[in-house]
Amino acid sequence: MKSLETDRLILRQWKPEDAGFVLDLYSRWEVQRFIGNHPQVMRDRSQADERIRAWQQMDNPVHGVWAVQLKEQLQGQAGLRGHGTGEGPSRGTEQDLPAPLAGTLLLKSIPASGDDLPLEPSGDTEIGWHFHPDYWGHGYATEAAAAVLSYAFASGLEKVVAVTAPANKPSQSVCLRIGMRHCGQTRRYYNALCELFEAKAPAHAKDHAEAGT
Fold first, then answer.
1. Average pLDDT, the chain
2. Which long-range contacts link 17-20 to residues 24+ away (Cβ below 8 Å)?
3. Which residues are within 8 A (CB) of 71 and not within 5 positions of it... i.e. 6 or more apart?
4. H or E segment at 21?
5. Among 11, 2, 35, which residue's Cα sits nearest to residue 128?
6. Does the pLDDT of residue 206 top 70, yes or no?
7. pLDDT reading at 207 higher than 70
8. Is the pLDDT of residue 85 over 60?
9. Residue 75 phi, psi dihedral angles, 5° rounding
10. Exposure of 131 by Cβ count < 10 A (0-12 exposed, 13-18 middle, 19+ buried)?
11. Which of 50, 114, 127, 133 reaches 20 to 30 Å from 210, CA-CA?
12. What is the DSSP code string of 104-131?
C-alpha cells in the first residue's frame, strides 16, 4: 500500500503498535454510531489487533486502509505521552513526543445489498473516514480524503462512491468539500438506507458532461 502525504498529514500502513489508538478510536460511541447497521463499540485490545491484521492483509493494488498521522503535535495536545499509541500515559515535552494518530482513511470495495451474508461485492469502490473526536473540527478528514481520492483517480479508478447515514451531516459535508456529488438516497449498498455521493475521474467526468449525461 502506498503511503501518502499532505501539508499536515502522513497516511501510512497500520502497525501492530498502533493497536492502542485503534482501540481508543473504535471504543467510542460517537465514532461507532454511524458505522454498520448494528453499531457496536470495540471492547478489548485483541479486537484492535485483529482489525489491524485485516487491514494489513488487504490484497488490492489500489485499495487500502491508512493510518492518518499528524506531522506535528496539535497545539494543546503536547504533554501527555501515549495518546493513541498503546503506551501508558506519561509526561513529555512537545519535542520528544511522537506525532499523534488522528484517524482512519479507507478506500475499499463496497458490498451490494442482498439476501445472503456475507454481502457480495458491488463492483464499486468507496471512500470513508473515521477520526478521533480530539481531532474533529481541524479539516483533517477533508485533507486526508482529498489526498486519497486523488490517489484513487491517479491509480486508474474511474469512479469512487461514499455512503453515509442520513443523520451523519459532518461526513456529508466532507464529501461535498472534496468535490463529490450528492446523488440522493439509496439502498444499493450494505442493506441500509444511505446518502450516496459520487466522484468521477476528471477525464471520465468531462466525457460524460460533453455527452450530456
1. 89
2. 17/85, 17/86, 18/52, 18/67, 18/84, 18/85, 18/86, 18/101, 19/45, 19/48, 19/49, 19/52, 19/86, 20/45, 20/48, 20/82, 20/84, 20/85, 20/86, 20/87
3. 8, 9, 10, 99
4. helix 19-26
5. 35
6. no
7. no
8. no
9. -55, 130
10. buried
11. 127
12. EEEEEEEEBP-SSSSPPEEEEEEEEEEE
Q: In what order do the strands lie in the sheet with 121-131?
A: 4-5, 9-12, 64-70, 101-111, 121-131, 159-164, 194-200, 181-186
**DSSP helix/strand/coil, 207:** helix
**pLDDT for 211:** 53
Model confidence at 86, pLDDT cuts 50, 70, 90, reads: very low
Nearest to 36 by CA among 101, 102, 95, 117: 117
Please report, for the chain, how many H helices and E strands are present, in that order: 6, 8
Chain centre to alpha carbon of residue 204: 24
What residues are paired with 182 via a beta bridge?
197
Q: What is the CA radius of gyration of the chain?
A: 18
Q: Confirm whether pTM is higher than 0.90.
A: no
47, pLDDT greater than 60: yes
